[in-house]
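Notebook entry, cofactor series.
This is the third protein in the set we're modelling with a bound small molecule. For this one the ligand is zinc ion. I'm keeping the input format identical across the series so the outputs can be compared line by line later. Sequence and SMILES below, as received.
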Amino acid sequence: MAAVKARAMFLRRRTRAPKLNSNDGLGCDDVRCERCGSGDFGSKLLLCDKCDKGYHIFCLRPILASVPKGSWFCPVCTSIKQPQLFPLVQTKIVDFFRIQRSSEAIENQTQCNIKKRKRACSLAMSKKKRKLLAYTPTEDPQRRLEQMASLATALNASGTEYSNELTYRPGMAPRSANCAALEKGGMQVLPKEDVETLNLCKRMMEKGECPPLMVVFDSVEGFTVQADRHIKDLTIITEYVGDVDYLKNRENDDGDSMMTLLHASNPLKSLVICPDKRSNIARFVNGINNFSPDGRKKQNLKCVRYDVNGECRVLLIANRDIRKGERLYYDYNGYEHEYPTEHFV
Ligand SMILES: [Zn+2]
Ligand SMILES: [Zn+2]
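Returned structure with ligand:
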């Protein structure tokens, strides 16, 4: 660990001390960013602790806000070159995702109720308020198995257990700490009807009716998620889940997929979601590079925090129609500044 820290300091000094002792074998003067090809901004050019290749913290996706304090491994070294494919065997997938074979009758009834309620709304009402939509699973059960196997492959390769709920672990923040009322400036409340839509999405997943998404492996981006059918604007793609912890416990973490859950007036009460141990497909959705206009164009999801029955929850929602085969991207850095209530009301 000491060696790693020394290297990080050494790296930060690189631009100020270009002449280096050549016996370290690093050839640091020639380090260029693997993404943009530039050797500028040396203080933001991170060296991988395995392959020694360089990456600007702002060229990474998701972007890293600061140079990690501990060891760091580049996207190529972190993602296993050829992930071991999860077997496309129904019983194994059912076990992996703990799929429940619940009574069809009850589920059908629930779907009917939701449809009825939607119809009962007046046209004027539905025009005023844009409602969230539940995702539509792929009809073909074999294709759904392939989608779930792709997620299981990615979770296994990342050493992550499957979970579709926020989790509270001993030694981390307790569930009682997740209090939406503590949000600085207040948090938008998810309307009752949208809460039902979210719950419907959860029940579908429990039955193995997963969102129509495929996790694919890309040698540059690592695991990434693409739409496996057309997805309409305002569709709930997934909730962002993982272990809930206080931000103060995680300030020295290098976890690049930590997500803000609660931005409290009292910073000691702020919470983050850490998806490295337990999570779902959300952790494989990539952030855009919001430094480039091309990156911004790719964005097709919004990450929105809501007060759901008094607790904070983070949802990934389509912010435009998404074509089959399109990769999913959200603005990893942007959402704190661009609180997207205007988009939904
Ligand atoms: Zn770069
Ligand atoms: Zn590397």
